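STRUCTURE:
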């Protein structure tokens, strides 16, 4: 080999080494405390391990990493260095130290939902919004809407009778209507169709590439977002003229003491619809799947629900469900808990370290993303025996602390969890007492959109028992 060629190779090698270390020091500046980073691999600069994660089931990717590195490991996904955590204590630590770990979302999602929505904030503004949302969704407030939820469930079920339906799509209609009921009270029926048309266009763009050019899904979604805000403004101004008192979420947001602008109200209404609809619809879809696959559990749930009807008939009590009935459904409640655990529809969430944080001798550098892995916590044999088995009876005993967090934990934990459980209980009551169903086509497989779902949204044929 000639000397010049050798020299060329040497210089190229030096250049690559220097370039890599330059990128490394730019992306991961060294820490003054000299603490080690958690174990794991950061993969290639910028690309990181994105391809490894998305070329397989992300949950398998996490499970393999946990086996190799333990419950806390580093990675690099979608252009961001991150620390993944799968121990209940670490998840609790991250979710409860709001000043050290802030919520983080891609800018395009913020634009689409509205920058003022609750998810994106910390501090006083967030605390104020949370108080208003919790006020509307706490048990004492939602007690009064059981009958309305019941009538929405009955209408949906009647319209599916004898038809082949895609469970998830139909459940989205049910949960959308319940979300509107909790936001606008009985007025919701007036706005349902307009809001639905805009919201359905908006959601199509939610997971699209954020390219705002005419013709793209993102562009159509942003247009629908604008129209949605206009409809909401109209509703707000109509209410202002009426000077009436309302006990729904909009009433709570419009309370003068709340001090919210119209834009803040709109962003948070769109945000609550977003948080309430697909999550609950996805859980309901999984419930139908698990009940179908576990005939003895279905029988026990049906018996529990039939006994409520029987008791009402015998005592001459009004036939519709009330709040007390929904608090007396222990078997069905355990089915919901077990579904939330096995399906873990929100596999993980994101936070970002606001400063260098030391945790268990490791450094989580400022700016790094931190992902509490809910699904891995729910599927760890240390936390749940035979974790892959669907067994609602395991909830006869309370789970170990912080091992079960389907609604999150800490200052951003789900304020709608009581409403979600209520609407599921009401729905399952009418489903099991009046209908039977069978799954059509592919029975296994999971898809993510973005929530975990049975393959193809679970097509079923539903029949009235009569
Ligand atoms: C079974 C259905 C549901 C599940 C599994 C669920 C799960 C969650 C989880 C895990 C979080 C926390 C996310 C994080 O910490 O990053 C959350 C937040 C939230 N959820 Fe739910 N949710 C459900 C239904 C609902 C419903 C029905 C509503 C409204 C009526 C709702 C409203 C919200 C809101 C507003 C937040 C943001 C809270 C904040 O940032 O302070 N959710 N949800």
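SEQUENCE:
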């Amino acid at each position: 080999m000639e000397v010049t060629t050798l020299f060329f190779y040497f210089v190229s090698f030096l250049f690559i080494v220097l370039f890599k270390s330059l990128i490394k020091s730019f992306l991961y500046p060294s820490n003054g405390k000299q603490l080690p980073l958690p174990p794991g691999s950061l993969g290639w600069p910028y690309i990181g391990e994105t391809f490894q994660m998305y070329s397989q089931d992300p949950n398998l990717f996490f499970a393999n990493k946990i086996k190799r590195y333990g419950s806390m490991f580093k990675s690099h996904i979608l252009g961001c260095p991150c620390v993944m955590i799968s121990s209940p204590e670490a998840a609790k630590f991250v979710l409860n130290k709001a000043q050290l770990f802030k919520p983080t979302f891609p800018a395009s999602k913020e634009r689409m939902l509205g920058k003022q929505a609750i998810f994106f904030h910390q501090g006083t503004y967030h605390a104020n919004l949370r108080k208003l949302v919790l006020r509307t969704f706490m048990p004492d407030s939602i007690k009064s809407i059981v009958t309305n939820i019941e009538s929405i469930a009955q209408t949906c079920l009647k319209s599916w009778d004898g038809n082949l339906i895609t469970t998830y799509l139909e459940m989205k209609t049910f949960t959308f209507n319940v979300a509107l009921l909790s936001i606008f009270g009985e007025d919701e029926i007036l706005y349902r169709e307009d809001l639905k048309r805009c919201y359905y266009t908006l959601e199509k763009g939610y997971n699209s590439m954020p390219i705002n050019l005419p013709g793209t899904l993102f562009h159509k979604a942003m247009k629908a977002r604008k129209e949605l805000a206009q409809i909401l403004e109209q509703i707000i101004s109509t209410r202002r003229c009426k000077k009436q008192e309302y006990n729904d979420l909009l009433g709570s947001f419009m309370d003068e003491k709340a001090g919210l602008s119209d834009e803040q109200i709109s962003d948070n209404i769109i945000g609550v619809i977003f948080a309430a609809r697909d999550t609950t619809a996805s859980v309901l879809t999984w419930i139908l799947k698990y009940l179908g696959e576990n005939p003895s559990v279905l029988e026990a749930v049906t018996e529990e629900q039939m006994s409520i009807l029987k008791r009402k008939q015998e005592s001459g009590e009004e036939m519709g469900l009330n709040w007390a009935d929904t608090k007396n459904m222990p078997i069905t409640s355990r089915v919901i808990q077990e579904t939330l655990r096995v399906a873990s529809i929100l596999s993980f969430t994101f936070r970002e370290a606001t400063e260098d944080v030391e945790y268990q001798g490791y450094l989580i550098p400022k700016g790094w993303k931190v992902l509490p892995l809910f699904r891995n916590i729910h599927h760890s044999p240390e936390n749940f025996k035979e974790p892959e088995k669907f067994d609602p009876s395991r909830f006869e005993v309370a789970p170990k602390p912080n091992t079960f967090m389907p609604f999150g934990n800490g200052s951003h934990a789900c304020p709608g969890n009581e409403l979600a459980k209520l609407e599921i209980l009401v729905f399952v009551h009418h489903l099991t007492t009046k209908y039977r169903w069978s799954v059509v086509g592919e029975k296994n497989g999971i898809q993510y959109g973005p929530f975990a779902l049975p393959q193809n949204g679970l097509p079923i044929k539903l029949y009235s028992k009569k």
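REMARK: The pocket of protoporphyrin IX containing FE is lined by residues 103, 118-119, 130, 133, 137, 182, 272, 275-276, 279-280, 283, 345-346, 349, 406-408, 412-416, 419-420 (CB under 6 Å).
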